[in-house]
Amino acid sequence: MTLLRGERVVLRPATEADVPVLVAILRTPAVARWWGERVEGDVREALDDADTTVWVVCEGERAIGMVQAWEETDPMYRHAAVDISLHPDSHGRGLGTETVRTVAQWLFDERGHHRVTIDPAAHNAIAIRCYERVGFRAVGVMRQYERASDGTWHDGVLMDLLQGELR
Fold first, then answer.
1. Which CATH number does the domain housing residue 52 bear?
2. pLDDT at position 140, please?
3. 154: phi > 0 → left, psi -120 to 50 → alpha, else beta; which?
């Protein structure tokens, strides 16, 4: 797997040894509201999925989050999807934008994708603004897309970015 570098972040391949640190970040209340209860299982599942690449997002030597890219390999539908979570201490400094931009650039340049998607919760305005800064556009609302920990369903926004639109 590939090490990726932004201006201020380094994305290093995640390993089993990173699971406790990533789970701790994902269980931080401001992050957990988007991830739900199954964080450890979700992280381990992503690490074992051949179509998913998982990186630890580092600022200097410190792990500040996780980003993953999933690739659809069917030639008729070939595209990639991205998911990111950063510790709240790293919010508001452009590190999420830089991370998403770095992964999208890699997916276009190195993996040959023409389209990348991301699917934040419709009420996650901070994430949506971050993705828009990279060039993603909302293409639709997925009604009752994800279940919250309280059992209620919430809408998601499907956003995509085509090669050449990256900012």
1. 3.40.630.30
2. 97
3. beta
Nearest CA to 53 out of 111, 97, 135 is that of: 111
Q: pTM for the full model?
A: 0.94
Closest to 115 (Cα-Cα) out of 159, 150, 151 = 159
DSSP class of residue 60?
T
The pLDDT of residue 39 is 85
pLDDT at 149: 75
Q: What is the pLDDT of residue 7?
A: 95
Q: How many domains does the chain have?
A: 1
pLDDT, residue 151, reads 85
Q: How many angstroms separate the CA atoms of 117 and 165, rounded?
A: 13
Distance CA 107, CA 133 (A): 17
Residues 6 or more apart from 8 whose CB is under 8 A from it? Answer: 59, 94, 95, 98
Domain range for 29? 4-117
